[in-house]
């Protein structure tokens, strides 16, 4: 007969609702599940990552050096030794398109599917900047240059080029996103405009729509300049106007744009837009300051833009902006006390995971669940030392690996290392992490794509309800027969004979420790059916005994309550030693009390 001691995990339903907004992350995960590489020369700024959807290889530019990382093999980055100045996803079968300096000359190449440079051509027209966004759509390369603007180069036709008609010194391009589906003939550029109006600074977040086949105007007007570019302001709440980062996610029918904003008071907000809505706004709204009677409508993609009428080109020369701002799908997700610098997004079924880098070297994992408002910060990681600047953040979505870089380090985080949430079913469930799942014995990487429902652990409830009373007596440990109770998968069996009895000499001081993993839970001690409040210390709930006497003898349980779950985190049994020779005897009771000891050390 298999005997289960299920006293160790007791929890029951208590109808408390969960949707309380928390400022703190639920759990703090130091640097577990991370591997790091330190670079010898610590002077590099930005780290640029590129990986084609579905590919195991991540390309990384640092200090103009190109590296590759094979995610599956947990490779250290392999230096490929190029003086790289542009890096972007390749088109068609090619994993990568890049430009680099060889003997003072710039050359651009495709990296073909056998990882060989091909279709290389010299490119000396401009001094490319690796930290500026770029995009390859078919044969068209789009790239930005700081303080100058947006350029196009046809990689197959040296005469098909577009450059800005005048330098855009006040504009910073952040991200270029290709159109998909019905928007395939266009691409979108997200940029931040900065005006210094003497007294105060003004930030305007903008999105530009341009046609990929734009070839410029005619000899007289807009020759080799954009003839299809129109712009719109982006709206995100009332005062979030400083666009910090943009991340796009392709869904079945659309492309979602996640934009990270900041306001004057250093609060952060994330707004979500979709490409269909952006495109619809561009085609339906009036224009500012110009009367649109021209046909076709400004911004329409022409077969051959050099044939456009002078009337239209005159309108396009003014860089028309539409009146209506582009609106987010929903209210912004606002983070009051966080100054985020980078954003990466993943979609797991209906849940959205936002990974947000902080200025302090930390990363927050934020869950946006369609059924729950508002968002919750499910975990906070500290991949880099306090105060280091995060220079790059990249999520490899299929392997669930997050790459975080600073000037001198590259940290790889395994986001499916679910054991960090604890070894109990409820802990796994309460983590709400869509990457994790209770597999019967452990909190482990989600394999089946399914939303965890609370019934996973629910089978235990009724049984433990029964066991509650017994535990509080502090004498008998309840035993359950697996065959009677159908506990088949919910929790790991614990041998019934292991127990901790701590003997404490009369009049001596002692304390009991209970780790507080979740900042969203409340903790207290139960002793002799009475609830005792915690004495808080760092990340634990303590019970202090000033002077041991008989009153303090008995069974102690540290209980946590979070949402509808209540569970016992650690148990201790205290006895007063009558024999003054024995001061402290500890017998391991079960693994969690060892965790508690670990905290003591
Ligand atoms: C990206 O890759 C995933 C898995 O390989 C696939 O399901 C998805 O459709 C791909 N997306 C695009 C836009 O190719
Ligand atoms: C890749 O390029 C190399 C050299 O340019 C060529 O030999 C090879 O056949 C190409 N591979 C593919 C798959 O096109
Ligand atoms: C915002 O943060 C920056 C850098 O941490 C600081 O210099 C600035 O004073 C802050 N602004 C406000 C309004 O708190
Ligand atoms: C736009 O056209 C309307 C009539 O078609 C006219 O009343 C208005 O003044 C025009 N506005 C501008 C800015 O030209
Ligand atoms: C795009 O956004 C609009 C409004 O913001 C919304 O009505 C529409 O349902 C969204 N489309 C998709 C595919 O989510
Ligand atoms: C972080 O970046 C800022 C400005 O980019 C710089 O002044 C500071 O020295 C950097 N901090 C570290 C630890 O490198
Ligand atoms: C991430 O961690 C999980 C759990 O420890 C492990 O199963 C998985 O193989 C790891 N993934 C990678 C890419 O190392
Ligand atoms: C559950 O996950 C753990 C650790 O990830 C693994 O060792 C164990 O074999 C898994 N159990 C089942 C039933 O898959
Ligand atoms: C245990 O639960 C499963 C599924 O919930 C059920 O099919 C089975 O009959 C149960 N066994 C017992 C002994 O209650
Ligand atoms: C044990 O000590 C506590 C507090 O110091 C005191 O309230 C209690 O009465 C004592 N019990 C006995 C049996 O002396």
Can you tell me about this structure?
Residues 493-577 form the Ig-like domain. InterPro entries: Ig-like_dom, Ig-like_fold, Semap_dom, Semap_dom_sf, Semaphorin, WD40/YVTN_repeat-like_dom_sf. The chain is mostly beta strands. It has a domain at 500-577: Immunoglobulins (Immunoglobulin-like), CATH 2.60.40.10. The strands form 10 sheets. The chain has a 7-stranded antiparallel beta sheet, with no helix packed on it. The two termini are 38 Å apart. The site of one 2-acetamido-2-deoxy-beta-D-glucopyranose (NAG) has 3 residues, from loops.
Task: Briefly say what this structure is.
This protein has a domain at 500-577: Immunoglobulin-like. The chain has 7 helices and 40 strands.
Features:
5-stranded mixed β-sheet; 40% strand; 601 residues; semaphorin receptor binding; Sema domain-containing protein; Immunoglobulin-like; binds 2-acetamido-2-deoxy-beta-D-glucopyranose; signal; 40 strands; chemorepellent activity; elongated; disordered N terminus; 7-stranded antiparallel β-sheet; glycoprotein; mainly beta; disordered C terminus
